[in-house]
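Pasting as-is:
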Amino acid sequence: MLLYRTNSGWWVETGSGTGVPLPDDEAQPVTTREDLLQHLESVVRGSTPQPLPRNPLAPIELQEVWAAGVTYYRSRQARMAEAEPAGGGDFYDRVYSAERPELFFKATRHRVVGPEAAVRIRRDSNWNVPEPELALLLSPRGKILGYTIANDMSSRDLEGANPLYLPQAKTYDACCALGPAILVVPDPLPSSTGIHLDIRREGQIVFHGSTSLAEMKRGLAELASFLYRESSFPDGCFLLTGTGIVPPDSFTLAVYDRIDIAIDGIGTLANTVEQAK
């Protein structure tokens, strides 16, 4: 099932452009995935489908957004290459092989944008890329409730200059996009689930890349368990699970570029690029 957040509240898609609204007091799922699915199915059974509202919002309410890094071999290669001039490449090789994953704070709700909104590139950075990622919606107890698409915008020159600049490279206004919906399914996503990135400039594709969850080194539940070890999330949390698609070093985003990130079974998250004035 797909859950959409709209200006009129949360909706469950029922197919062919239709859906049913969720009661306001039950809009934010905080139970197990099994209980959530059972509840959504009962709402659908007891309601008449209506036209699904257009222009969904980012599917986030009070949750924090965190992220995992260097979970794909391709990301390890890119991080090592960008940090090598500053002598920090070894950090990323070591964390890729370590038991403990890299986890970092990404955004609060007001720094997150939804579908068809603009993500930003920093004014003090000359090397900016999108990072297409599967995002987990986690319950307050750290259980995976659902999945959505994320764009973890990154300033590669800042992070490469010094690993301690990671918060500045990752966290700023409109640094993250989520959407278009939350996928709630009874079973974990298969490893064959594909992730695809297209970047268009003046209508032409200037970069395309694809990967799948099979390329991840770490398990999704494993990442969630590390995040919740000593941190509580009373409203739940979104966890971005890393990227396996990295444009070449010669590429950087430009204002007005269009970023399309598609994940099998969820849909496509589309955003344009702007720069703060």
